[in-house]
From TrEMBL:
Domain of life of the source: Bacteria
SUPFAM superfamilies xrefs: 2Fe-2S ferredoxin-like
Organism: Chryseobacterium zhengzhouense
Name listed for the protein in its UniProt record: Ferredoxin
PANTHER family: FERREDOXIN/ADRENODOXIN, TRANSFER PROTEIN, PUTATIVE-RELATED
InterPro entries xrefs: 2Fe-2S_ferredoxin-like_sf, Adrenodoxin-like, Beta-grasp_dom_sf
Record's keyword terms, sorted: 2Fe-2S, Iron, Iron-sulfur, Metal-binding
């Protein structure tokens, strides 16, 4: 099993040290849901299709994320609470080079 260590700050301001598998094709939104770090129904509303921005996070420490795609960029262009370091969790697929990633879950609209 290939796991990475990441830090996720929830919407209450509590930081969680999380172990995330890289061999299960999971994205950050699914990790947040599996650890129950956001209230049910407030994250991944669209099912991870980059269509709602409910999984928006602020990247605090970027160990080398893949560049943002057009769909993600377009969705963030319409979202609330967007900052320069905003990304959609559903578009961040867990990979070994994400070791040390730190994010904060953005407020729900």
């Amino acid at each position: 099993m290939s796991d990475i260590n990441i830090k996720i700050t929830d919407r209450e301001g509590v930081t969680h040290d999380v172990v995330a598998p890289t061999d299960m094709s999971m994205n950050l939104m699914e990790i947040i849901r599996s650890y129950e770090l956001a209230e049910e129904g407030t994250i991944g509303v669209c099912g991870g299709m980059a269509m709602c921005a409910s999984c928006q996070v602020y990247v605090i420490n970027d160990p080398g994320l893949e560049p943002m795609g057009d769909e993600e960029d377009a969705m963030l262009g319409e979202a609330f609470h967007v900052q320069e370091n905003s990304r959609l969790g559903c578009q961040l697929h867990m990979a070994m080079d994400m070791e040390g990633l730190e994010v904060e879950i953005a407020p729900y609209p």
